[in-house]
Write a structure and sequence with these properties.
50% helix, alpha+beta, 18% strand, 3 domains, rod-shaped, Heat Shock Protein 90
């Protein structure tokens, strides 16, 4: 199970299915609620219409026995007086709840006797129109009929309330029990007082519609979820197919250690295509780095072999013939070997990402100290120095300055100029010579390791080709730049730019 859901395709399918399931449940619930509310409103509308129809008859003064009540089971009706007595009801009404009056047989006898008593001793009365004179004498029936006739003379016009109230309940009509929404409409009359008409609107249609809708959802939702899950699974598998190809190729590259191979790039513009391109760019950078390291090791071995071989030869000759030992040459080779080892160690530290120290260094003071330690030769060194501070490693910056001055002295005809100044938020150090300069198409190549443009120069006269590479690496590690341009005198001008402390603080 863990392996299955460890797949992006499985997680995407599960996630999409869950989202769709939640959306379907929410949408289904909303549809059912809206449908129920709509059908309930329709039932209330039917109930209100039936109640108002009966209320209009009562307001017009029609007798209870003459009321035209709905005779179907969809709209049971009750008429209740202000004393809570049922005075009229639909035929075949057997049981009712939710109206506040549980009676289903009109209480006309008692009401008729009370009315007759007020008229002079008449008692009894007949029951409502559908019950006739059952249980009472003929005289009572006649008196009730006379009373109803008096009530229906038409001079008792009532007032119907405009705001019905609604309740829920059940009713049994002709043996069928159903749920209803009951509308209660009040009618105010002068002769009969306040009457309340209860009329019901059946909810059987609502329940049938809701049941049908719920059944459709219970059948359709799982089918739709299965379709969504299947489509998501297929689409995700197709979308992730390039990832499988990239993974297989990367595994092959790891196994073969062949960094010249590249992963396939799909012909799309999506994230997977960008991943493939980024992977290939990483492989290219890694291949370049490995090749650079191999060249570096090969060049370093070659550069080290020369002074070591020379030093060994001189020592072997000195051991066999002490009078022929060239002490000065041995010392020179030893110094050269020591400087090369120091350069290789510094490059290794820079490649390892060693951060420079955070002390403040005055470039002008650093130049004066460097120039004071140099012996004068055929090349004159001029200095135009303005005090400017930088933050970094004094030892590494001194190495940069020494390498730039050494390079300038080797290529200058007669003069080298060193200047320091502040320019904006930068501290600028320039070293210029009056030599032949650097061809424009070679100005970046000279910063590569073990590169020397003067092929005619012997190794003893030149360096190992690491000075400028070290200088640029140190400049980059200090957040600056090192470039070469044409000097005003026609030679080469090396410009070192480092951020000043104020610029770094900002």
């Amino acid at each position: 199970m863990r392996k299955l859901f460890g797949s992006v395709r499985a997680r995407a399918t599960l996630g999409a299915s869950l989202v769709v399931a939640l959306a379907l449940v929410a949408a289904g619930a909303a549809v059912l609620l809206a449908l129920r509310a709509n059908l309930t409103d329709q039932a209330e509308s039917r109930a209100n219409s039936a109640a108002r129809e009966v209320a209009s008859q009562l307001a017009a003064g029609r007798a209870y026995a003459d009321l035209d009540l709905p005779d179907d089971e969809d709209a049971p009706v009750q008429v209740v007086d202000d004393k809570g007595r049922l005075v009229a009801a639909s035929d075949d009404l057997e049981k009712i709840t939710g109206t506040g009056v549980d009676a289903v047989e009109p209480d006309r006898g008692k009401a008729g006797r009370q009315a007759g008593g007020e008229k002079g001793g008449g008692s009894g009365g007949r029951s409502e129109g559908r019950s006739g004179g059952k249980g009472e004498g003929a005289e009572d029936a006649k008196e009730d009929a006379a009373e109803d006739a008096a009530e229906g003379r038409g001079d008792d016009l009532g007032e119907i309330d405009d705001d019905p109230t609604y309740t829920g309940g059940t009713a049994t009509v002709d043996g069928e029990t159903s749920d209803y929404r009951f509308a209660a409409v009040e009618v105010s009359t002068d002769a009969r007082g306040d009457l309340t008409v209860y009329a019901g609107g059946s909810l059987s249609g609502e329940q049938s519609a809701l049941s049908t809708a719920l059944t459709s959802m219970l059948i359709g939702f799982p089918v739709l979820l299965a379709v969504v899950a299947g489509v998501t699974w297929l689409v995700t598998r197709r979308a992730l197919r390039p990832v499988a190809a990239i993974t297989a190729e990367m595994s092959a590259i790891t196994a073969s250690e062949d960094l010249a191979r590249r992963v396939p790039e799909p012909d799309t513009h999506d994230e997977i295509a960008r991943l493939a391109r980024t992977t290939n760019e990483t492989l290219t950078a890694l291949q370049t780095s490995v090749e650079r390291q191999r060249r570096f090791v090969a060049d370093a071995s070659h550069e080290l072999r020369s002074p070591i071989a020379s030093l060994r030869t001189q020592l072997e000759v000195g051991a066999a013939h002490p009078e022929l030992l060239d002490v000065d040459g041995a010392v020179e080779d030893t110094v050269r070997l020591q400087e090369l080892a120091a350069d290789l160690l510094l490059l290794a530290r820079l490649d390892a990402g060693e951060k420079p120290a955070g002390g403040r260094v005055d470039l002008a003071a650093l130049v004066r100290e460097e120039l004071s330690q140099r012996t004068r030769d055929h090349v004159e060194v001029d200095a135009d120095l303005k005090s400017v501070e930088v933050v970094g490693s004094r030892g590494q910056l001194a190495r940069v300055l020494g390498n730039l001055v050494n390079n300038a002295q080797r290529h200058a005809r007669s003069r080298v100029t060193v200047t320091t100044r502040s320019e904006g938020g930068w501290a600028v150090l320039e070293v210029a010579d009056d030599g032949s300069g650097v061809p424009e198409d070679e100005r970046e190549r000279i910063f590569e390791r073990f590169v020397r443009l003067d092929d005619a120069r012997t190794r003893d006269e030149g360096g190992a080709g690491l000075g400028l590479a070290i200088a640029r690496d140190v400049a980059v590690r200090h957040g600056g730049t090192l470039v070469v341009r044409r000097a005003p005198s026609g030679g080469a001008l090396f410009e070192l730019r480092l951020p000043s402390p104020q610029s770094s603080a900002e």
